Protein: AAR2 protein family
Organism: Zingiber officinale
Amino acid sequence: MDQETALDLVKKGSTVLLLDVPQFTLLGIDTQMFSVGPMFKGIKMIPPGIHFIYYSSSNKEGNEFSPMVGFFLSTRSAEVVVRKWNHSEERLVKISEEEEGRYAEGVRCLEFDSHLGPYALNQYGEWKQLSNYITESLIPVMHEPIGGDITIAYESGLIEVPKTAMEKQLIEQLKSSMFSKLEREEHYKHGCYYTPIPNSVNHKGISAEELTAINLDKTKLLEKILIKDYGGEEDSLLGELQVSFVAFMMGQSLEAFKQWKSFVILLFSCIEAPLKTRTRLFSKFIKVFFHQLNHGFQRNKNHSNSTGKEISLFLDEAWFSKEIFLFRLCKDFFPLVLDSSVVDGDLLYWTRKLKVLLETALGWDFADDEDDEPYPKYCTKVAKVKVELDK
């Protein structure tokens, strides 16, 4: 890149000025992550739009790290966002508007330019695939009113009995963290407000057979959530799906993982919606889901499992077992779409790509019925339905 082009990008792109961040801190923006050096003061040439900043502070030796802390922000062309490291709280905080204005002027005069790392524009396309439904209006609804950062260190009140290897790992990280020493009552705060998604449905006044059918096909539950919580806007649901994935994957939030998992289970448990009532939504959902898994599988591929296949450090090893929820959901969903006599072209295309990704990246064989047990959704008992919804 020639000097004139680079200068133009510096002026038109947004800048995140991060002051006094300790050396060795792991810091990321979107899909990019690096270790902070002694001269680091922020990131320049950031494309305007939605971004996610996340970081993990280190000890003096740079070999032990605290849980990840992250926050969403929306930037405009040539905007300067300033955060300063609070050493007592071990996190980035906002500064006064007056002080931020002075620093912003210094950035525009290129006073900090030699201390700012450039945003890797060749990775921006991957970030857009993970965030294209996250809008500027969605972030305040989910994030700002509650305030605070997204971090598992503030989620101990949400943790009950760990059910998966991933949850156990996150909880252990929380217990050994410097954040666990904070006074919970004083500092506890959520980073996001998520839409409640019930696991099952109970309608009064209908037969047991009808109730079982509703819980086997979550189409009616999906419709209720879409209308009640999103005003019928399908893209808003996909936006929250992407927010929860980013907060879980980059921010390592257990709360976000649970929300993302709830979305995935809800959508993959629909039978009528993909083929009839919400084909457009499912075409977009499968595409979003494909890019999410593809991102997770490709990051930091330097370990191998027992079969010699590489394992991403970004996804826990438990993901690569057939015992997890994802295998069963996909095993039931793929025939629904792929064996249908009439199916939307985009839905068919992305479903095939997703199936190939799981087969090649994980070695999953969806045609192998050996030792298969009935998927729990087909064993739903009316007596165990716990969540009640109004008619």
